[in-house]
Design a protein that fits this description.
The protein has two domains: 134 residues, Rna Polymerase Sigma Factor, Chain: A, CATH 1.10.1740.10; 53 residues. Helices cover 73% and strands 0% of the residues. It contains ten helices and no strands. α5 runs antiparallel to α6, α7 crosses α10 and α9 packs across α10.
Length: 192
């Protein structure tokens, strides 16, 4: 996946199996993990993830970033609706973590200002960032990647990173800049 813009464009074509496989690889674990952390039964998670992906596939033509907003918000709305529909069909309402009503938790998730909605956004951004970093890593030399990882991800100083990698501090800044530019291109529209 070169950029998310091309990725989102590729998803517009239902016949692009690679794009849909990438969508499932990128977002399936996020949705599955989120459902499990929110107290969904293991048996429900695979069914709901599959339902979400089917709805995304069917309705992707309706997604327009300028009108709909960020992809993560659109995906969250679909996930909430699929989960609610799944439980309605199952004729049950599970308890959310802490014993609260799951319907109330889903309503909070729909509110973009609620704590649980902000948690979804943070988890989404972290998950997608990690996914995108794995996707772009092969574009860089091991030294460039090590400099980026040490400086940007591990929080070491440019001087410490430069000394450890036997490069100049300026090379550390350049490595970070190049990787971040690639990450921004890859995340455009997915992470806002």
């Amino acid at each position: 996946m070169d950029t998310s813009a091309s990725f989102l464009d590729a998803l517009q074509s239902a016949s692009n199996e690679d794009a849909w496989r990438t969508l499932d690889e990128a977002y399936g674990p996020l949705i599955r993990g989120w459902l499990q952390r929110q107290g969904a039964d293991w048996a429900d998670t695979d069914d709901v993830v599959q339902e979400v992906m089917l709805v995304v596939a069917r309705r992707f033509g309706d997604f327009h970033r300028q009108r709909t907003g960020a992809f993560r918000s659109w995906l969250k709305t679909i996930a909430v609706n699929c989960l609610r529909d799944h439980w309605r069909r199952q004729k049950r309402t599970p308890k959310a973590p802490g014993g609260s009503d799951f319907g109330e938790m889903l309503a909070q998730l729909e509110d973009p200002h609620s704590g649980i909605s902000k948690q979804w956004d943070r988890e989404h951004d972290r998950h997608v960032t990690e996914y995108l970093l794995r996707q772009i890593q092969p574009q860089f030399t091991p030294q460039t990647w090590s400099a980026f990882q040490s400086f940007a991800l591990e929080g070491k100083s440019a001087d410490q990173t430069a000394q450890e990698l036997q490069i100049t501090p300026n090379a550390v800044f350049i490595a970070k800049s190049r990787v971040m530019a690639s990450l921004r291109r890859a995340g455009r529209g997915l992470i806002d």
